[in-house]
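Anyone? Bumping this.
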Amino acid sequence: MSQQCREIATRVDALASDLRHGRILGSTEAAYAAFSFLSDVVKVCGRDFVKYLPSWVETIIDARPTSMVMSNLLREFLIGFVNEAKRSGVEAAIEKVAAIIDKINEEIEHTKKIVARVGAKRIVNGDVILTHSYSTSVIRIFEEALREGKNFSVYVTESRPLGEGLVAAEKIAKMGIDTTLIVDSAVRFVMKKISKVIVGADAVAANGAIVNKAGTSAIALAAKEARTRVLVAAGTYKFGIETVFGELIEGIVLNDPELIIPRNRMEELTGKVIVREPIFDVTPPEYIDAIITEHGLIAPQAVPILIKEKYGLPPRVKSIKELLKEVRSL
Amino acid sequence: MSEYVPEGVRKIWLDIKEMRIRGAGRIARAGARALAIAAEEFKGRNLKDFMAYMERIAEFVRSARPTAVSLPNAVAYVMNRLKRSGASSLEEAVRAVVNAAEEFIEYSLNAVRIIGELGAKRLENGDVVMTHCHSTAAVSVIATAHNQGKVHRVYVKETRPKMQGLITAKALADAGLDVILIPDSSVRYFMKKVNKVVVGADTIAANGAVINKIGTSMVALAAKEARVRMYVASETYKFSPQTVIGELVPIEVRSPLEIVTEEWLNRNPEVKVYNPVFDVTPPEYIDAIITEKGVIPPQAAILILLEEYGLTLTESFIKEPYELRESELGE
């Protein structure tokens, strides 16, 4: 491994840490960050790229096991890469890495555009929308609805422990939307004023359950109680294909005291309490009114239908493990 | 208030207003103590002036925290006893106030202990408890159950924005429990690992609805969904007599700066930051209210109010709910 390649490759640990601690917010952004890493290393690593690709992919996926987007898109990348290598040789495949990534990014962009258009149709004048965490898919829906001249306001939760709701509130307000920030605890209190809940997702399981930032399931429960509709913006690239085979989507639970306890209170509590901060939770399908996909609005229970349309049933997809094995044998 | 207010009273008023004294029980005891201080430091000479002075002080103390019912209830407890005392000299009147305040403080502290004992009976061996915010009464229940060897593990919610969960976490850790501190957003995530929820109350309305720190109603809903029992530990002076006459309990909305920094707010002037500090948990989500007078279903809240204030829907009560008891009893 060349010195230059070794240097740039150490960035995978920083990337993994950013993913693990939620410094990279959305699940699609997580995938983009992984691609940007791969685009950078391929430029300097040459043949070594193939040698180290499997361990990089494993490290990245381990850091964010909930992000179906990332594993689905990395899978697509690996399929493209392996096929290219088999067809025209490893050297040629390495040359084509940037092109493969561009093609995937284009597809995602296209998907997001359609999700935004379908989602925007559900927004009507006077809507008061509650959203949680930071989701680019949801923000795109708001953008599209604004473009259509719709008048609505948005409530955003802080989304502790990471607090990415502040970033969302900032962005949404800058778009010119009437934006109100609340603490996570206030979701039931404000729910009576809310006409729709719209959230994104990190993953969608085969039964229609949604994996998203912790607090989503409580919001969905409070919405159900108040008869407020819950919409989830999630292109099919977020569907957990392996969940059809009973695979569980693994969540991340941090135990970082600094995420909860302010510095000036740390001393009185250190060694006395433990902290547990789940970053994701699971919202059951019965609390979700519809999932907004690039194939239109579907009931959460209809997720397997879209999986079947795309991949067949049982889904004919190679697991990342198999693909990495193929990369190793190139 | 332009008239004379002793320094010690002002300090308590400010401490309550700026939340250095918090928790409904503490606020109530501080309110009673403020009245005792005011009485002892009265500078005038005659009884009539003293009575008028105490009325003004009472109003001043009540104004520190308009939504905490325990405060006016504590003030009423002392003031009613002053009026009932039939004091014929200034000295007697001062003593009546001091005695009543001490009596209230002792009653209040005893109440917390009794609630702890009654509440602990509702907890079973191996129960894992969740709590929200900081409540001396709720801590008393959980700590008592721990001392009886029944409860070892408790999930404590951080309770944004003021992080009162940290106070609870420390108190329960000091009492020997295994404390797991969690973000408010994970309430539903952890509810499956919990058997009982024990929280305190700020105010209890006539229909049994519980007004408590923002997030309590979300905890209650998640508990209901998971069939986890929900208990509210509350002294009877948190039951609101005004709600009997249809009064709504006002929900205090506090400063955005409790949630975001000034720097963030300046950078994002177009974002509204909404900070309601209490919410209302409907009685149907509460399994029982544990008071020092017994464990009651929330729907029986009116029982406590009747006991305390009598059958009272009269015109005078509608005007002055706190005055009622003495006039009705004709003491």
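Late reply, but here is one note on the structure posted above: Chain A touches chain B through 47 residues (CB under 8 Å).
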